Amino acid sequence: MTARKTAIVTGSTSGIGLASARRLGAAGYNLVLNSFTDASEDRALAESLAAEFGVEALYVAADMSKGEDARRLVRDAADAFGAVHVLVNNAGVQHVSPIESFPVNQWDRIIAINLTSAFHTTAVALPIMREAGFGRIVNIASAHGLRASVNKSAYVAAKHGIVGLSKTTALETAGQGITCNAVCPGFVLTPLVETQIEDLMAQKGLDRETVVAEHVLRKQPSKEFATVDQIAGTVAFLCSDDAAQITGTTVSVDGGWTAQ
Ligand code: NAD
Fold this sequence. Notes:
With about 260 residues, this protein is α/β, with parallel strands linked by helices. Helix content is about 50%, strand content about 15%. It contains 8 helices and 7 strands. The chain has a 7-stranded parallel β-sheet, sandwiched between helices. The termini are far apart. Bound molecules: nicotinamide-adenine-dinucleotide. Nicotinamide-adenine-dinucleotide binds near residues 10 and 185.
């Protein structure tokens, strides 16, 4: 048991999740890292963040497509550190296809990982946060939680869903020292987007620069990717005392996408 606050970040071995964990580690939180893999590199990552930031860090292998794993992640974190103060529901996957040929297993996987896992982690975290009298839940949604795009039905449905879950969570915790918000990034250059760029290059026979300009950043008026550090900074702000009255809302980091 320790006086430090504890932060869980789901899907935190790469991209936005890893950047958020690093930012929260720098702010002095003990860290619970997660992915579905159970490799020595995962535990080594936790050890390296612990050493870098002088905090404690634990890696918990748990598959966010499985409700029982999502619930166990939060219980393991509370068992290890005595409480959970911050929960960043970040794990997410993508599949792109028209609705009529959208593989059912991909639909189920995206809804489970991008939406339902946050219901499970939140359900276990809330009583623990109420007992601590403090909680910050940050759900990583997307500009696709506010706008749609063709061929992304499951992702858009899941991200709109998590925006709704964030609002309901905020209402059920208002006045209890707990907040819940959704961060809505536009395009951020991570492995999730890199795969989409490579698929489009192959499909359309175009070079990378053309795909990025005409197909990826077309919707982002700034014509620049947001960075993982900018998303992580937004997550850290929502966990701060300055954000104590920000709850049940969305924060867009999307280069102007949703202003359109
Ligand atoms: P990423 O692929 O770099 O990271 C995804 C993380 O989720 C990885 O750590 C991966 O191991 C983990 N993960 C995947 N399946 C999992 C599972 N079943 N159980 C546990 N962990 C699992 O992607 P990213 O771009 O950093 O995405 C993070 C979040 O940000 C996602 O929710 C994504 O939808 C959202 N987002 C990303 C962008 C973008 O442009 N990159 C834009 C808006 C929203």
